[in-house]
């Protein structure tokens, strides 16, 4: 049957990408359908019950600044919050939260159910309605036809999913969920490049069987950090500790003795796994000289005894998993509640996508999340938001929007994916961003909220809160700039005592704040009232201290923008560009970058090659 209502946007898959995509599209006023296997699993964390971490919290805060759900759901579900790299510079500081799975999921579901313009429907999508080179809707497995202007595919690890536990294989999208085989076959028949990746998860443990007295306790930070710009500590549920355990030589012996029963080492799994989140068998194999690896024992929630032992993801057979777990101090009597497993799935080469995440071959069809070769909730959520907003813009007849690499980690993520593709599950790191000092987690709101407001993603509550904060930062910076400390005064003495150096001339408070020995609290009270808002004070301090570096990065960006504005024609025959090596010609022909700046980011494309391209373009004109 054909469903009577027609939608602007259909999102397939209610995971991290799909929920952000559906919410974004609906926030922008588009009639949106979220079609998912199972309403109970909306926003489910397939693996680690945690959000954020290095590089990833930057994405969460960007999603948040653009009005997304992940940051607020984390504040509502977070049971332990920490700031990682707290002693390092602000560019690499990252907030990480342990989340109560049930609370996190409930928060996401509640936001979805209360979102105007959003309809949720539970059923598997089995086919796409494609006419010529455009998509027009979706057909469910029972034959219901939903028509729409655009479709966003966010099917995660489900396409052709195969679960491995030891040498046993079964079909599944993740443990307990069916795979998406009909849709996988349909997509394989379309002209996209497809390949296989794999990822894995550890066995879960029963806390009642763990001896915590011999494990190191790791409490959260105090005062508790907050994830969303609209979040507050009052939103957090009760906070709990994690614990740290260690593998030992006996653990490693057990793993080595059973590698032939691991699907990865016996050649059963073909997909490439995440290098930065390796299985325990990978770790002991690759780092054979290491006698021990850390395991973070993380609670899965407040009303459950289940624990997530972060660091022993595995696809070894269950009997070996049990032996491995029980070889660890504190886990000698541990009961495994769910075995660990690996999953192999189809992903599509993201080089077949545009910056908007629309596919190059099928108009109005967008891909977001793990389907594009990424791993992680945050990477998925960020792509979902971008694909959802662009699907909505397409439905409204508007141009696509995406942030540049110097504006957001989301810009880095998408540009990396569509320009370079990926051979292994892609995850975000701060090292992937060239302009780390500009792209901090503390200023994602300053970078993106205004754009989000213009796009129709940011509601009045967020916009008002943001505007008040931005004005307070500007006012306070101006106040410090206009306040002077003169040598020989009481204020100067206070500064001299802190820095151990005499004040030889007059300085503004803003200039004094640039000194490494001085913080906002040391200078702000020397003239007038300091602000009573930690986020404002932090921002004033960071902007003052790093202004010199930030200005330098801005100069580089301005130079690069010229290349960004230089398009590379779609019909450019790289074989005809004189002076380029065969290898570079091949790389450019494969990637077909849209701009000179994009070409410059392809690994192996040297500055000299960029100059040659520039000369070639001038000759063509
Ligand atoms: P998912 O969260 O997988 O959501 C997909 C959604 O689509 C689901 O709701 C599903 O029901 C729905 N769906 C699928 N097909 C259809 C269909 N045909 N019709 C309707 N609905 C459909 N990430 C890490 O960062 N580190 C890890 O160590 C890690 N380990 C993992 C281990 C395992 C075993 C798994 C399964 C995942 C792991 N992940 C890990 C990945 C993390 O779960 C994903 O990156 C993230 O969930 C991707 O989000 P997504 O929205 O793309 O897909």
UniProtKB/TrEMBL annotation:
Major location (coarse): cytoplasm
The UniProt keywords, alphabetically, are: Cytoplasm, FAD, Flavoprotein, NAD, tRNA processing
Looking up Gene3D superfamilies in the UniProt record yields: FAD/NAD(P)-binding domain (3.50.50.60), GidA associated domain, C-terminal subdomain (1.10.150.570), tRNA uridine 5-carboxymethylaminomethyl modification enzyme MnmG/GidA (1.10.10.1800)
Name its co-factor(s).
FAD
**Has UniProt tagged this entry with the keyword RNA-binding?**
no
Q: What top-level branch of life does the organism fall under?
A: Bacteria
User: Where NAD(+) is bound, by residue?
Assistant: 273-287
List, for all copies, the residue spans of the domain called tRNA uridine 5-carboxymethylaminomethyl modification enzyme C-terminal subdomain: 544-615
Compartment(s) of residence: Cytoplasm
Q: Which GO terms describe its biological process?
A: tRNA methylation; tRNA wobble uridine modification
Chain residues that bind FAD: 13-18
Its biological purpose is as follows: NAD-binding protein involved in the addition of a carboxymethylaminomethyl (cmnm) group at the wobble position (U34) of certain tRNAs, forming tRNA-cmnm(5)s(2)U34.
Q: Which HAMAP family match?
A: MnmG_GidA (MF_00129)
What is said about its interaction partners and assembly? Homodimer. Heterotetramer of two MnmE and two MnmG subunits.
Protein name (Swiss-Prot/TrEMBL):
tRNA uridine 5-carboxymethylaminomethyl modification enzyme MnmG
Its taxonomic path starts at: Bacteria, Pseudomonadati, Pseudomonadota, Gammaproteobacteria, Oceanospirillales
């Amino acid at each position: 049957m054909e469903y009577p209502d027609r939608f602007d946007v259909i999102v397939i898959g209610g995971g991290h990408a799909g929920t952000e995509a559906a919410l974004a599209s609906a926030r922008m006023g588009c009639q949106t359908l979220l079609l998912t296997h199972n309403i109970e699993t909306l926003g489910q964390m397939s693996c680690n019950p945690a959000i954020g971490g290095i590089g990833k919290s930057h994405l969460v805060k960007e999603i948040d600044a653009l009005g997304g759900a992940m940051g607020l759901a984390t504040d509502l579900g977070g049971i332990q919050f920490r700031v990682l790299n707290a002693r390092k510079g602000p560019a690499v500081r990252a907030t990480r939260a342990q989340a109560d799975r049930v609370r996190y999921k409930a928060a996401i579901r509640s936001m979805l159910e209360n979102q105007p313009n959003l309809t949720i429907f539970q059923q598997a999508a089995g086919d796409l309605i494609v006419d010529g080179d455009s998509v027009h809707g979706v057909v469910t497995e029972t034959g219901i036809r939903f028509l729409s202007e655009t479709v966003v595919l966010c099917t995660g690890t489900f396409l052709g999913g195969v679960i491995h536990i030891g040498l046993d294989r079964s079909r599944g999208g993740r443990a307990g969920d069916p795979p998406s085989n009909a849709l996988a076959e349909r997509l394989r028949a379309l002209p996209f490049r497809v390949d296989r990746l794999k990822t894995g998860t550890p066995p879960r443990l029963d806390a009642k069987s763990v001896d915590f007295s011999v494990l190191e306790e790791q409490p959260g930070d105090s005062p508790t950090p907050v994830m969303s710009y609209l979040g507050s500590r009052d939103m957090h549920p009760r906070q709990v500790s994690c614990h740290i355990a260690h593998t030992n030589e006996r653990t490693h012996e057990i793993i080595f003795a059973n590698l032939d029963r691991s699907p990865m080492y016996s050649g059963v799994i073909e997909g490439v796994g995440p290098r930065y989140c390796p299985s325990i068998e990978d770790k002991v194999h690759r780092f054979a000289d290491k006698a021990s690896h850390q395991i973070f024992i993380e609670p899965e929630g407040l009303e459950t005894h289940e624990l997530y032992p972060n660091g022993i993801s595995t696809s070894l057979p269950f009997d070996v998993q049990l032996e491995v777990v029980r070889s660890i101090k504190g886990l000698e009597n541990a009961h495994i509640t769910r075995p660990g497993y690996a999953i192999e799935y189809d992903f599509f080469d993201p080089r077949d996508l545009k910056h908007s995440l629309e596919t190059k071959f099928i108009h109005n069809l967008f891909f977001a999340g793990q389907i594009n070769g990424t791993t992680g909730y945050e990477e998925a959520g960020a792509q979902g938001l971008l694909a959802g907003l662009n699907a909505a813009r397409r439905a409204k007849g508007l141009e696509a929007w995406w942030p540049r690499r110097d504006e957001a980690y989301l810009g880095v993520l998408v540009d990396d994916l569509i320009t370079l593709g990926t051979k292994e599950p892609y995850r975000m790191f701060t090292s992937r961003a060239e302009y780390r000092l500009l792209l901090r987690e503390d200023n994602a709101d300053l970078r993106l909220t205004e754009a989000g407001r213009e796009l129709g993603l940011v509601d009045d509550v967020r916009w008002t809160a943001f505007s008040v904060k931005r004005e307070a930062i500007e006012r306070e910076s101006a106040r410090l700039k206009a306040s002077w400390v003169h040598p020989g005064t009481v204020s100067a003495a206070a500064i001299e005592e802190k820095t151990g150096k005499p004040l030889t001339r007059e300085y503004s408070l803003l200039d004094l704040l640039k000194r490494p020995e001085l913080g906002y609290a040391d200078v702000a009270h020397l003239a007038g009232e300091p602000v009573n808002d930690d986020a404002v004070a932090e921002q004033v301090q960071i902007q003052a201290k790093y202004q010199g570096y930030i200005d330098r990065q801005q100069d580089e960006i301005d130079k690069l923008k010229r290349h960004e504005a230089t398009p590379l024609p779609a019909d450019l025959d790289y074989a005809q560009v004189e002076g380029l090596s065969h290898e570079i010609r091949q790389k450019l022909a494969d990637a077909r970058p849209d701009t000179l700046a994009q070409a410059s980011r392809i690994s192996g494309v040297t500055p000299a090659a960029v100059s040659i391209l520039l000369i070639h373009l001038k000759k063509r004109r």
